[in-house]
Amino acid sequence: MRFMSISARLFLACAMSAAVLAGCVTNAETSVPQTTTAAAVAATADTATIDTATADTAANGTAPAADESAPGVHLIKIEPMLQDELESGCEIYAAVTLLDFYGYEADAQDFSQNYIPVRENYSDGCGYYGPDLYSAFAGEPEFGYGAYAPVLTNAINDYLGDNDSDDRAETVYGLTLGGLCEKYISRGMPVMVWITTDMELPEEFISWTVDYADGNAKTEVGDEFSWPVNEHCMLLTGYDDENFCFADSLDAATVWYEREQCESVFAEMGSQAVVLLHPTED
């Protein structure tokens, strides 16, 4: 989730109001570089371990923590990282937590500054502009909007390359959360997923004209991009018959939510996920 201060919200409102009052439409033009997503690799990870355990009491989840004795509980033990310095960086904290799970000593600030492509949002008096979130992080991780799965996939792969690792991240589209659990969580592999804060359906949006798009974009330069204000990214870490479990950076807590609601929100957010894979396994 993006926590916007009152002053920041006022600034944004003024910027967008100025564009409306100006009564003009301007399509910013910019070059559109191409980036390539990580190649598909094998779908297992031997360093991951799966366990049936008692989850921490959910701080803001809608479902109770799972019972350790319940045979249908599948939970990957992960220590959630607190989203503190980078207030708009839930994706970054999820990525760093994922890397830490696999034994990498990743740091949120370093990952943000050296691996996340950032494009500013701005107003020119005639319109409000920014990137396609599938191409770059909109705004700053300290205060901004966010980024979607391909941006984090590329950032993780750049980090892995700098650490001489053969592991690769992959963007996954189109699976349900249940499908992700069957394919990855059941095998001890946590998954980054794009959902919303408190698992509420997106209702409020901020829109801008796209001024930057790469090969992963869902829009073109000049199109409108709409960002849901309650967008959030967490690690999917477990499930039982009725609920899904997530590692949430907002409270550094393990939270459980009812399956049907989670599936609806995940679909609304584009059914997008990121998983870390080992290329030597099939």
Key features of this structure:
globular; 282 residues; alpha+beta; 4-stranded mixed beta sheet; Cathepsin B, Chain A; 25% strand; disordered N terminus; 6 helices; 7-stranded antiparallel beta sheet
Summarize the helices and strands and which ones pair or pack.
Blueprint: H1 6-22, E1 74-75, H2 90-101, H3 108-115, E2 118-119, E3 122-123, E4 128-131, E5 137-140, E6 143-146, H4 149-162, E7 168-173, H5 177-183, E8 191-196, E9 205-212, E10 224-228, E11 231-239, E12 243-248, E13 253-258, H6 259-268, E14 272-277
Parallel strand pairs: 2-5, 4-9
Antiparallel strand pairs: 1-11, 3-4, 5-6, 7-14, 8-11, 8-14, 9-10, 11-12, 12-13
State the distance separating the first and last CA atoms.
35 Å
Low-confidence stretches: 1-59
Query: What is Rg?
Result: 19 Å
CATH architecture: Alpha-Beta Complex
- Tell me the CATH topology: Cathepsin B, Chain A
- The fraction of residues in strands falls at 15-25%
Number of strands: 14
How many distinct folded domains?
1
CATH class: Alpha Beta
Structural class: alpha+beta
Helix count from the secondary structure assignment: 6
